[in-house]
Amino acid sequence: MVDVRIEKSWKDALADEFGKPYFESLVRYLHSEKSAGRKIYPPGSQIFRAFELTPLENLKVVILGQDPYHGPGQAHGLSFSVSAGVPAPPSLKNIFKEIESDLGVKMSGYPDLEKWARQGVLLLNAVLTVRAGEPTSHSKIGWQEFTDAVIRYISDNCEGVVFLLWGNFARTKSALIDHSKHHVLEAAHPSPLARGAFFGCRHFSQTNALLAGMGKSLIDWKL
Questions:
Q1: pTM of the model
Q2: Whole-angstrom distance, CA of residue 75 vs CA of residue 81
Q3: Which end of the chain is more exposed for a tag (fewer CB within 10 A), N or C?
Q4: How far apart are the C-alpha atoms of 117 and 124, rounded to whole Å?
Q5: Residue 132 backbone zone (phi > 0: left; psi -120 to 50: alpha; other: beta)
Q6: Annotated catalytic residue within 16, 67, 102, 112
């Protein structure tokens, strides 16, 4: 079994995955990339950051992305988020616009979504690593098998989680979720390529309404 540095509640929950051949192959592939001198994002210490900031017992919401940003200094282990001091990418800017419209608040433009993660929002990319400058370059090395297992575990073992699935790729993961136990909200992707179809989804107010209905604390989306 591969020894993965991941937050304990998730390590216990996903222990079976770390011993499977696909995961061992995935780790070998990442080592080979490093040995070949290829730059990989995010840095190794941040690959599992979403899990570190959102332990299972805190989990209330899942926002599913596709794969990490592939530019210098952008990816830091949280879907859609970038580190402080890095300009917000177009999709994140559109997320902020929707929050402002939906909730009537003014966003600062601060691009690090750690505040959300610490409130129970799992900012999960389906693929957890990428080569610098090569989008989706690690999409077929085994990460999706792992993150599908994460989604299935949440579906089977948690109650009342709100899943936000934006865009066609994220929507394919709906089939992994037990809709009788959880809430699934779908919308267009916030990318400008969706030509504004994301706007008006009101997923942020809807999420808080659902959490309130379950007696859970609300997410403070304002940054």
A1: 0.96
A2: 7
A3: N
A4: 10
A5: beta
A6: 67
